[in-house]
Design brief:
It holds the Pfam family APH. This is Aminoglycoside phosphotransferase domain-containing protein. This protein has 2 domains: about 140 residues, no CATH class; about 325 residues, Aminoglycoside 3'-phosphotransferase, Chain: A, domain 2 (Alpha-Beta Complex). The chain has 13 helices and 20 strands. A 7-stranded antiparallel β-sheet has the order 1-2-3-7-4-5-6, sandwiched between helices.
Length: about 525
């Protein structure tokens, strides 16, 4: 099936000649005819175009295969060997970023993979071989600023059937080792190994939450050459991750508006995201139907409710000149952030099945949006944006294992949960009751529920899934937009009345319907 026009990877393609040029500039001693290329079928990826590359190494004419050095080999015998090549097949993944993203997306994923390799060496993750921020200059671990150009090798590799004018230009890419396995399926989770899979995922999450250094700011990551002046919003995270390169935390790579100073704590971060969403709501024409009521409602929330939520009790201290000020007489307490995957969905978890049927996690992929975030963010993001990907029973096993590993925030530390149910009916624009039931968060205490409700507001102010290229009719567009408006309204009302809570046991809710909002988050 063709890639929909609304997807970032629409019309993003590399020719075989360009892919082979990337391989030849990234790997030593590979012949073109040893390279086979397999594109990931359309619809299997959203933000990127993926190609799988197999290197089928074979002996050249007159060469001998040597798999190891032994004491029986004499100097005379070794002199006869012209190659140390061993017949084998090695697999890689070429990931090309989609439209609408810039070099920061490449920098963020490369930084995250290198940091996981450094601080969590026991985890199975793809290994970085090379990358390009501009699509042309080849960057490697030994030469991270890059100097080699693809152009000549690409042109030399073109054959008569390939047209250079159809090549995607300026698209960043990365070449990674390919980890075996398939994405988790519902069948895997329903198997006798389903609980074991969730516990293994929890072990990955606990590893990076425990072993990655905490951050002094919130956001995604950038790579900067040592000696280069960092942007005003950047905060140093790790020095010398590569020769001459440091990692900094700087805002969010998907934000409509970038911050002008570091996001030092949870409240500062949320305030920035809401203001960025309001700017997008104002500037993007497709949101015109809800622009006025949404703006008025969210601005009141920003002024009258958000700063006083219990969730942010440790974020804001008035009238303290020693703390960072927002220029309005309020001061902020810096808070530590933790490494967060930010897209922990079954599609990003690989498993393998042994000959005797045992299913084990082989890797967790796609750290393209990962970064340093507030403690509850990993879980709030999943339960708001990816909730339909996980059934309640599976996610409960995941959280229980994290509790045993002391790797959950305090607001999720107890197996019981506190559920807030609206005690009043909403206005006439309220949709059917199921819309409200789908938004119930069946885990965590009141503070975690506040984190989820704030996340839901942020995601729905200018809903990212509503785009000009989505092909919606006017009625469908209004349905999506006013659905977002209702979700924001209900979330604000719930936050304002959060002192009315009901304590329940987790078991009461687990057999019920899946949780989350009514739209799925792609890739």
């Amino acid at each position: 099936m063709p890639t929909p026009r609304s997807h970032p990877n629409y019309n993003v393609h590399f020719s075989n000649a360009k892919i082979k040029a990337i391989v030849s500039k990234s790997l030593d001693d590979v012949d073109d005819d040893e390279i086979s290329i397999e594109p990931l079928p359309s619809g299997r990826s959203f933000n990127n175009r993926i190609y799988y590359i197999n290197i089928n190494t074979r002996l050249r004419v007159g060469e001998e295969s040597v798999t190891s050095d032994t004491e029986t080999e004499t100097e005379e015998e070794l002199e006869k060997i012209t190659s140390r090549r061993t017949p084998a097949t090695t697999s890689f993944a070429l990931k090309i970023i989609g439209r609408g993203f810039d070099e920061r997306k490449i920098q963020n994923e490369i930084s995250c993979l290198l940091l996981l390799e450094k601080y969590c060496p026991s985890l199975s993750i793809p290994r970085v071989l090379s990358w390009s921020e501009d699509g042309e200059k080849v960057q490697t671990r030994s030469n991270p600023q890059g100097h080699t150009s693809l152009h000549e090798a690409f042109l030399a590799g073109l054959d008569g059937e390939e047209d250079a004018s159809k090549e995607s230009v300026g698209q960043g890419w990365m070449l990674l080792s390919r980890v075996p396995g398939h994405a988790i399926t519902l069948k895997d989770l329903k198997s006798p190994y389903g609980s074991s899979i969730m516990r293994q995922i929890a072990a990955y999450v606990a590893n990076w939450r425990t072993n990655m250094p905490p951050g002094n700011a919130i956001g995604n990551l950038i790579l900067l050459a040592q000696g280069e002046a960092p942007p005003p919003a950047a905060t140093l995270y790790v020095r010398s991750i590569l020769p001459g390169m440091d990692v900094y935390i700087q805002g969010r790579l998907t934000g409509h508006v970038q911050p002008t100073k570091p996001l030092v704590n949870h409240l500062v971060y949320v305030t920035h995201r809401l203001n960025s969403a309001l700017r997008k709501l104002e500037e993007v024409e497709i949101y015109a139907h809800i622009q006025k009521p949404m703006t008025a409602m969210v601005r009141r929330f920003l002024q009258n409710t958000l700063p006083y939520l219990r969730l942010f009790a440790n974020s804001r201290v008035p009238q303290d000149p020693l703390l960072q000020s927002d220029g309005l007489g309020q001061a902020f307490v810096p808070q530590k952030s933790v490494f967060t995957h930010y897209d922990l969905s079954p599609r990003n978890v690989l498993v393998t099945e042994s000959a005797d049927g045992v299913i084990e996690v082989s890797a967790i992929l796609d750290v393209e949006f990962s970064g340093l975030y507030p403690e509850p963010e990993e879980f709030a993001n999943t339960l708001v944006n990816d909730a339909y990907d996980w059934e309640n029973e599976s996610y409960a096993v995941f959280l229980e294992q994290l509790r045993e590993l002391n790797a959950v925030p305090a607001s999720l530390a107890q197996p019981n949960y506190t559920s807030y149910f609206e005690a009043k009916k909403f206005d006439d624009d309220t949709k059917q009751e199921k819309e409200i039931q789908d938004e119930i968060i069946p885990f965590g205490d009141v503070l975690f529920h506040q984190a989820c409700l704030v996340m839901r507001i942020i995601e729905n102010v200018a809903p990212w899934w509503v785009k000009e290229l989505s092909g919606l009719s006017d009625d469908e567009l209004k349905e999506e937009l006013f659905g977002a408006l209702r979700r924001v309204k209900r979330s604000i009302i719930s936050l304002e009345e959060m002192d009315q809570v009901i304590l329940c046991s987790t078991a009461d809710i687990l057999p019920g319907p899946k949780i989350g909002v009514s739209q799925d988050k792609a890739d």
